[in-house]
Amino acid sequence: xxxxxxxxxxxxxxxxxxxPYLADKQLMDLNERLQGRGVLTDxxxxxxxxxxxKGTIIPELDSSYKKNHYQYLFYVLTRMLLPKRIVEIxxxxxxxxxxxxxxxxxxxxGEIHAFDLxxxxxxxxxxxxxxxxxxxxxxxxxxxxLHQADASSVATFxxxxxxxxxxxxxxxxxxxxxFSQWENKTSQAMIFEGGSLxxxxxQWMVEYDKKSLxxxxxxxxxxxxxxxxxxxHPFPSITIAVNGKYEP
Length: 248
Ligand SMILES: C[S@@+](CC[C@H](N)C(=O)[O-])C[C@H]1O[C@@H](n2cnc3c(N)ncnc32)[C@H](O)[C@@H]1O
What we know:
With 248 residues, the chain is an alpha/beta fold. 41% of the residues lie in helices and 17% in strands.
């Protein structure tokens, strides 16, 4: 029994992470856009050898972001941009939230306000209290404030943010509404789950005839020249809209 554990333990320590979106063309473009803040790709590569979430609860959480290791993108972007405030809409178990929270702790500055319907959401969701316990377990309670609220109402009580992350079963209509609510309130970047053609084809998007995220981001990039859009493709894909007024 001891032997089996020893072998397993050694193998686990030897495992290294491969970040699939490091080869993504639009990640390279984003790298260039943010180069005044450091080298995004180098910072991501360093996570492959020494991940910030080793030994934490983050890799155990349920998230569509997990398979392709998007926690490292959230962490590295937060380290680079040094936001004073982040607003997250759509928390589930806290995968992206805790990744950004760990980065703020390392930054030594900043706060996150995180919004979700929690148990009031009729589909896949988590309880407010369970997420709050994880925030405490990670010793992030001074940096992270949870709120139970609908996505559409958040802009009415938050005046401004540096980063906005939106992940509420996104579709093109939701992105359109949220973008117009937040474009004059977000100083650095808006991060949206989705944007690839593959993400548009998930079963519920097709079954309920939801507006394409790909088309919405195409329209926004034509109509909103102040914003620069980068879609990172590995599933579920992430689209990052960087405010043209933001000078890294
Ligand atoms: C895909 S999950 C979020 C995943 C999370 N960001 C992560 O890193 O794994 C979507 C979340 O959005 C929440 N949600 C769905 N519709 C919402 C709405 N209209 N307002 C607020 N939260 C909503 C759900 O309760 C669910 O927790």
